[in-house]
Design goal:
mainly beta; eleven-stranded mixed sheet; 47% strand; 273 residues
Length: 273
């Protein structure tokens, strides 16, 4: 089934009508372990529109939340940027509020734009491997083999003006990211959307990825997140049954000696029929 023209799609998903409250990499000293994304306070970017065909500027909010896409904790970063249809990266200046950050991306040229927080450094906490899984220690005594683990987060989203283009989809090649095999502006409901997990530009096999849709605050029950796993080539597919806005997220931890890094990557996308 071919993708319908983006210009004909219904837009306007920015939640203005909602309240703003609303394994092993090898080497004796290097250890990398995949971990499922935490349910608490996940990062996201959300644009005013995904189809910018009639827009010269797209406003994007950045926040951490426990309920998509209701902002709760502002996402601060010194590396907010937009990568345009020509592949050129342009820095963005955020406006910070208590619950969210706002950036404006100029979308005057036709093609696909990649809005990103860039890689932002978060807090450092004590962590240790317990029964093969990383455990963090706060307010309790850490074991002797605990290391200092720093959080590194990046959230991204794609918007398109006119016909989709591919230059902005090129991997950054540093840290954790998804390479879009299916163009993010061509994701169709009830069809597979395929991505590839990369760490420092290389595919990551057997990596868990969570898929979470926008919460319906009026629903009696909250939709549970789904988990998929990348294959031997680092690829995975997600398929949604309902049109709407979704977030996919993964976490990858690397430790060397007495220090480590916990990478989190999140991508927001829209699925339409």
């Amino acid at each position: 089934m071919p993708s319908p023209p983006r210009l004909e799609r219904r837009l306007g998903v920015f939640p203005m009508i909602r309240s703003f409250r609303a394994g092993l990499l090898g080497g004796a000293l290097l250890l990398a372990l995949a971990a499922p994304a935490a349910q608490a306070h996940s990062p996201y970017l959300l644009p005013s529109v995904f189809d910018a065909s009639d827009r010269k500027i797209v406003t994007v909010q950045g926040s951490f939340t426990e309920s998509f896409f209701t902002p709760e904790v502002v996402m601060k970063s010194d590396a907010y940027a937009v990568i345009g249809p020509d592949g050129v990266r342009v820095a963005l200046t955020p406006t910070y509020m208590r619950e969210l950050a706002l950036v404006e991306a100029v979308t005057e040229k036709p093609g696909t734009y990649r809005i990103t927080t860039g890689q932002r450094a978060g807090r450092t906490a004590k962590a240790a491997l317990v029964n093969g899984e990383w455990k963090f220690f706060e307010g309790e005594k850490a074991p002797a083999d605990a290391i200092d683990m720093q959080s590194l987060t990046m959230a991204e989203v794609y918007v398109t003006r006119g016909a989709p283009s591919d230059a902005a989809l090129a991997p950054i090649g540093k840290g954790l990211e998804f390479r879009a095999i299916t163009h993010p502006s061509k994701i169709i409901t009830v069809q597979d959307a395929v991505f590839e997990v990369l760490f420092d530009g290389k595919p990551v096999a057997n990596q868990p990825i969570t898929l979470q849709g926008a919460d319906d605050r009026y629903a009696e029950t909250k939709a549970a997140a789904k988990t998929v796993t990348s294959d031997a080539k680092g690829r995975f597919a997600v398929k949604v049954d309902k049109s709407g806005v979704y977030q996919i997220q993964t976490r990858y931890r690397v430790a060397s000696g007495q220090t480590g890094q916990s990478f989190t990557y999140a991508l927001t996308f829209e699925s339409l029929r």
